[in-house]
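User: Let's play a game. I give you a shape written as tokens, and you guess the letters that built it. Ready? Here's round one.
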């Protein structure tokens, strides 16, 4: 299950990167949808420690920014 979730996380990362850097609107929207779908599949297939790290890291950095 870890390998499958890492593969879908890689697909989500690459399609999000492409959706930000492409110029054509249709391709940009389709890459964004593919990124969201892959991210949801990753969250379903991922072990709980990976889910925890995906949720906790952004929250930790947001709290750290407020302190500084």
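Assistant: Ready! My guess for every position:
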């Amino acid at each position: 299950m870890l390998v499958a979730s890492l593969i879908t996380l890689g697909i989500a990362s690459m399609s999000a990167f492409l959706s930000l850097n492409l110029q054509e609107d249709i391709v940009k929207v389709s890459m964004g949808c593919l990124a969201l779908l892959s991210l949801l599949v990753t969250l379903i297939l991922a072990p709980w420690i990976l889910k925890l790290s995906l949720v906790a890291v952004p929250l930790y950095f947001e709290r750290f920014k407020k302190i500084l």
